Amino acid sequence: MSGFKVNRRDFLRVLGWGGASTALVGCDMPTTVTLEEGKEDVVAYFMPEEYVIPGVGVWYASTCTQCAAGCGIHGRVREGRALKLEGNPESVINRGKTCMMGQAGVQAHYNPDRLTQPLMREGGALKPASWEVALKKIAEKTASANGDRVAWLSGAVSGHQAVLINDVLNTFGSKQHFVHETIHASVWQAVARDMLGDAQPVLRMDKAKSILSFGADFLGTWQSPVHFATQYAKFRSGKRGVLIQVEPKMSLTGGSADAWVAVRPGTEGILALGIAQNLVKRGWAKGEVPAKLKEVLAKYELGMVANATGVAGDRIQRITAALKDHAPSLVLAGAPVEGGENGYDAVSAVMLLNILLGNIGQTIEPAAQFAEARMQARSGGTRGALEFSKLAAAKKLDVAFISHANPVYHAPGFMKMKDAMANVGFKVVMTQFPDETAMQADVVLPLYSAIEDWGTHVAAYNGGVATLSFQQPLMEPLYKDTRGFGDVALSLLKQRKPKEYAAFNDYYAYLKASVSNMPAAVAKGDKNKDAAWNALLQKGVLETKATVGKFKVNTATVAAVADVSADVQFPYRLLPSARLGLWDGRHANSPWLQESPDQISKVVWGSWVEMHPVTAAKLGVKSGDYVRVTSAQGSLEAQAYVFNGIHPEAIAVPLGQGHQEYGRYAKGLGVNPYAILNPVIEKKTGEVAAYATRVSVTKLDKSARLVHMGSSDTQMGRKLVSTIPATVYRRTEGEA
Amino acid sequence: MHVNEKDINEQIRWAQINADVLRSMENPRPAYWVAVAVCIAMVSCAVLAEIYQYNTGLGVTNLNNPHMWDMYIATFVFWIGMSHSGTLLSAILHIIHADWRKPIYRFAEAMTTFSLMTAGFFPMIHLGRIWNLYWVLPYVSDRGVWPNFRSPLAWDAFAISTYLSASAVFLFIGMIPDLAICRDNAKGWRKTLYTTLSLGWRGDDRQWRNFRKTYMLLACFLIPLAVSVHSIVSADFAMSIMPGWHVTTFPPYFVAGALYSGCAAIITLFVILRYFFRFEEYMTTAIMEKTCKLTFAIAMVWTYLNLIEFASTWYGHNIYDKEVLIYKATGPYAWIFWTMIFCGSVAPFALAIQKWRRHMPTMFVVSLLLNLGMYFERWMIVAPTLSMAYEPHQFYMMYGSIVQWAIVFGSFGWFGLLFLIFVKIFPSVSMYEVKEMVFHRRRHLDHETAVKFGRRARDAGTPATDTH
Amino acid sequence: MSFKNILENWSAFRKDAEAGGHHKYDHRWGMAINLDVCTGCNACSTACYAENNLAVVGKDRFEKGQAMHWMRIERYWDDADRQFPERGASFLPMMCQQCGAATCEPVCPVAATYHTPDGLNAQVYNRCIGSRYCSNNCPFRVRYFNFYSYYETWAEPLNQQLNPDISVRDKGVMEKCTFCVQRIRASNDKAKMENRAIADGEVQTACAQACPTGAIVFGDTMDPNSAVNKLWAKHEVKRGDYLSKKPKVNAEKRGYRIFEELNVDPSVMYLERVREEI
């Protein structure tokens, strides 16, 4: 054999051709053979990695964490990579559907700008560190901290993550868990609590025959958009329901309205009272109307309301009649109403309509709350950050943990969050990305993406079925130096109470034990049975027993709604509108979502200033011109987008852009309207009145093409989107 | 004025013809080298732009979703149109025995070949994957894959390659007797070249007979080819369903436009060659006048076809077509549209004025204007329809990027370079045909005189001293 | 293709489009999009990016009109003359309509776009030479050209998300909505292995699957029991020749196809938007 040379590669090739059958016998082959300096890896097909079936996609159930709605998802995994997310049909929240943000969940996971290792502040700069060092540093710094000088600021959390945060704080004896969400429904929830006795009533759009929405963008950004969209589909089918949207700037939901009513910004509550007065006057109000209420309503005559709101009297009457004709109805209030300086009163006026129209118990049902309070959703609004910033600024915090939130970016400018944070003794930020808050931290702990992590979620708005939704890893972590949130929280707990948590090697063990040992009052936990646990993970959701409340209707809180004051210096009201996609700005680092146009203006990759043609004409501005929007707090510059779907007294600047950090796709793009919010606080709830800032607009000497999708704003006589009157629809299919 | 002016000096000696033409092929003056350098610089621009485009992708041209075609295709149509000059002068006028064409057809024929060689680049340059260009050809593939014979673009590939080869052969065949003259007078490498190319031409009777037959045959072959090639180019547009493209009159419209721009280009080169090579004896004012009249007639045909297209669109009740027409005339491209109308339909009236058309500098400017109009015409065919067709969401207005401009610019350099090389290597005036012309004119004169004086025409023989 | 074959089978070639023309179809995949419940939320569009390896082009190239959104939501204002758009916006999900008589097909010089036996208008990336005539001849303007090598723009590790079931296109190639052909093929293979026909609903396009309101219904229009076929029938939209087609029995039925007058026989039926007068 001396003349016959066999090199290593040839040998392996021969083995590859002929060896398949022999190899199947099951000799102890390594799964990966490295050839020649490790340049080439051969994955042996006959010994697949766990979960890997070459060429075949496998679906795993999990939970979407792109917003706090808690939709169930299925993730497609192939060759160990998570590729695509779809809705989990088992989830009562989204019924197998997803929104654009859910679809982009994979981009939050594969984002090129993720943090890959812990960072520690050394000499003023953040420098890479190992987990051991970082955790040791935290242990040192927190050893002496206690009581309310320790705080945790997070976004909306629920399930076992909420439990762990609570437990960590408990070890310090602190109760300071602040929840901050820019896009929230806190005022609505407060009003519902006060007027119905239930903060999170179930809204049955599928039962409603008409919806009057005061700025509630339920198809876009309000509470649980995908859930409401599935409900909306039912609402529009069969005997088609009527949607009336009253708002100062067209939201995504407004785009689908049968009647879109432009209202003077800040006067939605007055309009609601006007409709209530009209209902009572025409004798259409259901049930007894208390005398005190009649007194409140008395001054909301059509003329006065029309004057204040800019909505014609006959229009108000037609809206009232439509609500009566298309019963049962459902009346909602969203961000522009909640965010007014009179937010609570205005939402109360809206809720009053539900009561007068007899919707309570019909289309509004008591919530079915998850039975274990510790795991219920901690949702919040802007109050959390406000309180946190005040404490921090007053140097009342020694240690702050921040997770699931980016307050330095999200908090309105007047809170001076960055400065306030500087006064906190020691800041630990747990995050996936190098965001604005992480840059201010003393220790930054890089987290797993939602696709790599374990978790459980209890939706704040659950559509009437209390479920525990499971989040499980769809693939191995991309970066070995990142850790799951639950694991980090457990590490913190182990630092404080090593004995109690010694049993849990990791968050997975904790979760499995906790779910298996769930009290029977919550769910029937099949204890310690792997099969049951696996079945649960397969399904992704666990329907639990719920505590269903009862309504206690109370109209005593309904009061007159203050009109908005005019201002010569700042003639326009700023609407920091939210959009499905970039949400509050947390998805600005997703290229898909940046490239996906705003649904209404169709602008991509940037910020813009929406204004009505009347306003634009007054300012001499056309679409694409740069304008400066100035409030008492500051100013911002962006290109104008002139369109009809906004009230002439309003100027809208969408949320989501204006990041100073947050990776290559977000950084330095556009402006953040929250930077120039006035410090107006809604008095009864303590939330920031985000829609109460007044601004002036000046034209700048600069113009460019506004980068947007699509050319013609009209169909130019073509039959592209054809519209028929509802009467025709009823004749052909409405009664079906 | 000189209404009965002669097309050519009938008394010119044949040796003089040879000498004049051969002189034009020698001793390039500094201006020639400057021109060559300029052309090479222009071509370099295009080459650099193409390298950049090839490496980066077609996005650098500013093309986009509605505008998948733009200047490349317009320029392609322009050069194809240009190529019709030679065919018109050589083939059509040859067949109808318009012998005034003889002093100027050679360079027109060269123009045909060179503009085709330029035009051919553009469908390639504009391809996304130029390296797969050959898939358009019906070569025998082991996978049994053929081009799509229904596609006008596949027809283009056949039409252009056929036309290019036919016109090149036509140019070459027509040059053989002249190449023999060159051979007899050349030294060095030129001798070798002309010896090879003249294919052993001795000028004997049998050769002349065969030559005549071949030449006539090729002329007859070339005429339908010329008409078909531009009809097929028009099919690139007319076969689509796009408003402003799907026009029944496009084939004749394109052919007319092609002849038009070809004639205009002949005038331009006529003036240039006459000036630089001192060809006043051959490229006479009288021939210029005839060329101008021909161009004017074609301009009017083109104008008429334009008006027909507008009228049929206007009264045709096709809302999409009408939109595009109105958009052309009033939209952002309106300045191009009206320049085209001015240059294409108003400027040619300068050709109708005898005083002007005898003034070479004026004709030079006018011919350039005409071709500018024709370039704009091509661009107005391609771009506005794409800017605005059926789907209003995708209406978009754009202009080509610097990369497109560089390549289009370079194509003129390429054409110029080929032409410059041609005039120094090959006789740009056909010597033997001019001799024929002179010969015939002399006979003709004598015949006229004979008629005038009621006598039998003299059989004028070839002066013994004037053999070549 | 021989001349004899054409002569002998002339009648087979002369079937009208309603009967499938000269194609022998196994399936004819089609869609019904209910514009009354389409909210214009972009879920479909983003799902399409995720499923089909669509390139993100960035701000500058988007501005140039070089975006690659196979599925785009067009938004129109119908009340441009009024002070406010009182009937909301008009949203139109627009993707390749998979025309039965597609205008893109005959003009491709290399036959890179052709009709499949399941009624799809297929684009063979490997065959495409990038002449772009197909896009010029598409009345819907739904064909997107790879003006750049976009695979270079997937920053690590974003490229790990790419769907291995379909290719990543290089510069110079035309692409467009495929009705998620990779999903159709996968289901086809599965059904074949299990020796059965594809069930209705077994194949869903990414857009239809994501659509929160279920506005998009996808299925085989040749399957009499499919949801999409029932919708087509209910709304009286038929495939075939525009000129010879009989008018609707009930003209008020909501179904229509866009640019029906061009007779390209789209496979997507839209249902009219409904608006109540308030």
Describe this structure in words.
The complex is a heterotrimer of chains A (736), B (468) and C (278). A seven-stranded mixed β-sheet of chain A has the order 7-6-19-18-17-8-9, with helices on both faces. By secondary structure, chain A is an alpha/beta fold. Helix content of chain A is 29%, strand content 19%. With 468 residues, chain B is mainly α. Chain B has one domain: Formate dehydrogenase/DMSO reductase fold (Up-down Bundle), CATH 1.20.1630.10. Chain B is 68% helix and 0% strand. Chain C has a single domain, classed as Alpha-Beta Plaits. Chains in contact: A-B, A-C, B-C. At the A-C interface, strand 5, helix 2, helix 3, helix 7 and strand 12 of A face helix 3, helix 4, strand 2, strand 3 and helix 8 of C. Strand 30 of chain A pairs parallel with strand 11 of chain C, so a sheet runs across the interface.
How do the strands and helices of this protein lay out in sequence?
The complex is a heterotrimer of chains A (736), B (468) and C (278).
Chain A: H1 8-23, E1 32-35, E2 40-43, E3 58-63, E4 72-78, E5 81-87, H2 100-103, H3 105-109, E6 119-122, E7 125-128, H4 131-142, E8 150-154, H5 159-172, E9 177-179, H6 186-196, E10 202-203, E11 210-214, H7 225-236, E12 242-247, H8 252-255, E13 259-262, H9 268-281, H10 291-298, H11 302-309, H12 313-325, E14 329-333, H13 335-338, H14 343-356, E15 364-365, E16 368-370, H15 383-393, E17 399-403, H16 407-410, H17 417-422, E18 426-431, E19 443-446, E20 455-457, E21 467-471, H18 485-496, H19 507-516, H20 530-539, E22 541-543, E23 546-548, E24 572-575, H21 591-595, E25 608-611, H22 613-619, E26 625-631, E27 634-642, E28 650-652, E29 694-703, E30 723-725, H23 726-734
Parallel strand pairs in A: 8-9, 8-17, 11-12, 11-14, 12-13, 17-18, 18-19, 24-28, 25-27
Antiparallel strand pairs in A: 1-2, 3-4, 4-5, 6-7, 6-19, 10-15, 16-23, 20-21, 21-22, 24-29, 26-27, 26-29
Helix pairs in contact in A: 5-18, 6-14, 9-11, 9-12, 9-14, 11-12
Chain B: H1 14-24, H2 30-56, H3 71-82, H4 84-95, H5 105-119, H6 121-125, H7 152-185, H8 188-197, H9 205-238, H10 250-276, H11 285-314, H12 319-330, H13 334-346, H14 354-357, H15 360-387, H16 402-425, H17 431-452
Helix pairs in contact in B: 2-16, 3-5, 3-10, 3-15, 4-5, 4-9, 4-10, 5-7, 5-16, 7-8, 7-9, 9-10, 10-11, 10-15, 12-13, 13-15
Chain C: H1 3-8, H2 10-13, E1 29-34, H3 43-52, H4 59-63, E2 72-76, E3 90-94, H5 104-107, E4 113-115, E5 121-123, H6 133-136, E6 144-145, E7 174-175, H7 181-193, H8 206-210, E8 216-220, H9 227-234, E9 255-256, E10 268-271, E11 273-275
Parallel strand pairs in C: 1-10
Antiparallel strand pairs in C: 1-8, 2-3, 4-5, 6-7, 9-10
